[in-house]
Amino acid sequence: MARRGLGRLGAVVAALGAVIVGLAASHPAQAGYAALVVDGGTGAVLNAVNPDEENHPASLTKMMTLYLTFEAIHQGRLHWEDELPVSRNAANKEPTKLGLEVGQTVSVKDCVLGMIVISANDGATVVGEALAGGSEQVFARMMTDKAHQLGMTNTVFRNASGLPDREQVTTARDMSRLAMALHRDFPQDYHYFATREFEFEGRHLTGHNRLMYRYPGMDGMKTGFTNASGSNLVSSAVHDGRRLFGVVFGGSSAKTRDKLMETLLDNAFANRDTDPKLVALAAGRPLTRVARARGTGHLAHAGRARRVQVAVAPVQRRGRAVAHAPRQRLAAAHAGKHVVAKAHAKAHAHAHAKGKVVAKGRAKSS
């Protein structure tokens, strides 16, 4: 009897455990936070907080779509004035879009400007499908393969736009590698990232990379936001011939994200460290543990780094991580107690106040 009772108890406990894990897995990933500043000339990491923490890229994903677009243009597989067909899949992308309709065509250049200026999800999908024989899934595999070729070993892409997908993950370090690759490999096209506005089908479209408009020397690159990612930003700026690349993940609002990037770049140009607490505060999160590591590592070129890397672990994760599968490591974190409802609410409220949340139940990537 005792054994039978213990067996029933064990079954109940196991069932409850399965329910808890299932509930955790059913929730979308919540925004983590990270920041990184890299010297574009030496590859030295000047400041880093959670540089290898996996997060959702949101519309930073479009930087890889743009990389593959520029590559195809320079290889002669695409041309700026080529007219590409709009599929139903592309036309149905919400909510930030050019407003393309099924069956129409759109030029490669308009898709590129749409991605950069207004983060057009439909434009990104059109180009991705064109480069992959009509399949966005195939294009996502091409994106992931290229990411790994560029050294972005902790990145997995699942679509061309950055719209929510729990398996689509990257890190601040990986995104800095992509930013530097875009500048290095396509110097004649990099200037497009500084575009503030353009005309499309009689409409005047303006961008929302606000920091670029006011920060001296900043000439790109890309913003991003979904509920699951928080407010993300990759920026590059030049002072006195010195170029820096900055990455911010998980800002509680576009305003706090931009302010943090401004502080990070100011301090890096002045050879000062940035307090990691500021990164946590920008995400609306407490800083719970700081571990300092000697040495900073390099992203591109040889040379001795001058900064101390700061690695911050804000949450305690549960579950077993799989070292070779970034999306599985992130999924394991879903069962931990790191749901940041307050930061989520602040980010959503800010986006709604700016008119960026367009429909109940829809997730934005911008």
TrEMBL record:
One of its GO terms (molecular function) is serine-type D-Ala-D-Ala carboxypeptidase activity. Residues 1-31 form the signal peptide. The active site is at S59 (acyl-ester intermediate), K62 (proton acceptor), S119. Pfam families: Peptidase_S11. InterPro entries: Beta-lactam/transpept-like, Peptidase_S11, Peptidase_S11_N. Substrate binds at K222. The keyword Signal applies. The keyword Cell membrane does not apply. Residues 25-252 form the Peptidase S11 D-alanyl-D-alanine carboxypeptidase A N-terminal domain. Its EC number is 3.4.16.4. GO terms for biological process: cell wall organization; peptidoglycan biosynthetic process; proteolysis; regulation of cell shape. Gene3D superfamilies: DD-peptidase/beta-lactamase superfamily. Keywords: Carboxypeptidase, Cell shape, Cell wall biogenesis/degradation, Hydrolase, Peptidoglycan synthesis, Protease, Signal. PANTHER family: D-ALANYL-D-ALANINE CARBOXYPEPTIDASE (PTHR21581), TRAFFICKING PROTEIN PARTICLE COMPLEX SUBUNIT 12 (PTHR21581:SF6). Belongs to the peptidase S11 family. This is D-alanyl-D-alanine carboxypeptidase/D-alanyl-D-alanine carboxypeptidase (Penicillin-binding protein 5/6). It comes from Nitrospirillum iridis. The lineage of its organism: Bacteria, Pseudomonadati, Pseudomonadota, Alphaproteobacteria, Rhodospirillales.
